[in-house]
Amino acid sequence: NSYSNKWQREVNWNVRKTRRVNGKTEYYTVRYSSHDTYLASRTYVLGQHGGPSFELQPGTHQFTYTVDLPHGVPTSFVGQYGEIKYEVLVTIDRSMRFDNVFKKPFTVVRTMNLNMIPTLGIPIEREAESSFCCCCCASGPINMKLSLPFSGFASGQKIPYNIIIDNEAGSDVNNVEVKLIQRIVFLSRSPERAQKVDKFTLYSENLGSVLKYTKKEFNKEIQLGSLPPSNEDPGDIIQISYYLMAKMKKGFFHTNEDVKIPITIGTVPLIQSSRNPNNVISMQPTAPLLTDDDMGGDKPPPYFTMEFLGNAKRKPKVFYEVNPGTQLLTKHLLDDKDFCEKLVLVENIEDFVPKAEELHSLYPEKVKVYHKDFVNIWKLVYQDKLDNGSRVPDLLIDMPKQPYEEEPSTAIYAGVGSYNFLKHIINSIVFQTSFLSYGRCDMFFVIPPPIY
């Protein structure tokens, strides 16, 4: 008697094709397939291969059998064009008769600790801009922003998402639709490399319309069920990925606009994603913590350093700090009295504006405060073109104008998480428009890794 293990994954699908034979069209079928076997083993628990026959007495017999799973085996999966399956076979070898074979499938879930991928814990957002237009006229912009606090989640968790629709067009957005999509890619190796893609909608919700000249915000959550972990290894013949999509539906004769954010599904959730830390599996340190004595005289530098600004070859006359927030950098700038002549704080979040205005009252000549959205300056440029407004000049009123060939006298520091802003910067450098029409300036941008 023996136990056998069979762990394999396979992909196959048929494609009907045509060809010309003797001037006639002929139909034929091509079968695309791939096959991988992880482990196929056999263990004899009673008797041996080729050994003498023996009689197994009537009754109940129990045998203990264990097997180690190889490291990194994929999660069990069954799809339309392929599957990853694991099963145990018990064979009773009967002399001069057909063998009795019993099969028992079992499920494997590969551990995927999301905390081991640092970029998954970073807030992420995507933006899209469109408009209602026809052959004879154009409308104002419609901006849609989809954001997540992080992009890694485990089965059973909730995905919190935020959508902001700023409709400055002269027409309504009929509906805003949100979907969570599972994308499965099946790869074949025979008779040639090809792929088959399946998509499944795991969640769908209609959030309603957005009226013209209005701004609307949606804060929702998606409850995840039991899902196989993400697997986008290019060498695997079955690859699984997920993404969240928000779509603006503008009605007939208009193109719908959508934004997508890729999501990674794992088995161990991010530490920062749990409201109750006791429910999260924490990572164990890989080495003991070092004390000051262990480190000797070479201690690491402090987390925040002014070296990249304070040791600059040139000191700016005007320094723009975009969204100073809790003013960690601002206080360092004010401590260095010779760093700049004027410090301009442009804060978009209303809750932080009073703290910034306190600094203006302490340094009325040096510190200027504006409650504006500098990161969306590309949008202000567009609005000024539509109505000949002065939004951009009002924002840059403290920036000195000078020829582009002269050394920069202005510096800008900002944390940037917007693709549109970076594209605007590139265009402004090429064509010397927007704030670069005032002359060259030094720019210090902090950019999340996914956008970088």
Automatic annotation (TrEMBL):
Q: Name one GO biological process term.
A: protein transport
Q: Which SUPFAM superfamilies match?
A: E set domains (SSF81296), S-adenosyl-L-methionine-dependent methyltransferases (SSF53335)
Q: Which InterPro entries match?
A: Arrestin-like_C (IPR014752), Arrestin-like_N (IPR011021), Arrestin_C-like (IPR011022), Arrestin_domain-protein (IPR050357), Ig_E-set (IPR014756), SAM-dependent_MTases_sf (IPR029063)
One GO cellular component term, please give it: cytoplasm
The Arrestin C-terminal-like domain sits at 138-270
Which key words are in the record? Sensory transduction
Family of the protein in this entry: Belongs to the arrestin family.
Q: What is the protein name for this chain?
A: Arrestin C-terminal-like domain-containing protein
Q: Can you name the source organism?
A: Megaselia scalaris
